[in-house]
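User: Structure please.
Assistant: Input sequence and predicted structure:
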Amino acid sequence: MKAAFYYGPGDVRLERAPEPSPGPGEVQVKVLANGLCGTDLHQYFNGPMSDAPLPIIVGHEFAGEISEVGAGVSRDRIGQLVVVEPIWRCHECAPCQAGHYNLCQTGEWHGLTGKGGGLCEFTTVRSDMAINVPEGIDPMDAALVEPMSVAYHAVERSQPQRGDRAVVLGAGPIGIGVYLGLKADGVEQVIVVEPAPERRAAVAAVGAETVIDPGDGGAAEAIMELTGGTGATLVIDAAGTQGSFDTSLAVAAPQGRIMQVAAFAHPVEFNPLAILQREVRIDQSFAYQGTFARVLAHMAAGRYPSGPWVSHVPFDDLVDAYGQLHRREAVKLLVDL
């Protein structure tokens, strides 16, 4: 089979590999689509995400059809369209035992830590990692469930209320997913802040009515005006910069919540006194836990439009696709296998 092997920074090669067979409790997935995200870019341009021996097959946002099953798995699963939750959790550590398997202390990630990946024609995963996709959802859209679940986990952890005055900082794929998740959960006022014009256009195309360009330095003032001078009751930071962090502190209302879902590339400066007298709460969100099914339900209900912000590339153009994303020539790329 054809597979994308990662040898190190700037070195991904399409090569032939043996087709994997599913072991006990596993399924073989014929991959149909795989998304590329910021983690993939970091891995490609900066270095491995783990100490697994290289090369490894990459790709962790993917959907496909179950093509074979291992011992102990019903053959009724063959032919099912599935999306793969890529966490190989251990089921034994304290976070796993408490149900927080996204925080597994010993687990591995499919496509990141050497357990195989989705950028290939066939891959094998545990049966419980392959989640059935409802009828009516295209395989390409199904490949978006993983990043949309990252975003939706942040939404759920922020406990949105219908009366919230919400702000989303950043309109990359996760920021767009946060916007769509908030709207799916009934939040009416959602203000999006994004400096890149192509990303502002993308989030506007999926329904965002209030999108602010922070380039003139007036984003905080604009948000305060739009919220009647009281500030945002909920801020979700999907940008991960000093500027977005400062904006979140500036616009949070008294007892407001700040949820950080972005992976900050650099440390930020922070004086807690800035929010002390407002009792603002800052929280974190990482990956997902049991989130795929809820995102799939919203997707089946038409709450996750993909057309305006997603582009497709053939598998043979994978290496060029990393450069396209790095140059921000696309908001989101799906590799069509």
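The chain has two domains: 2-144+306-336, 151-284.
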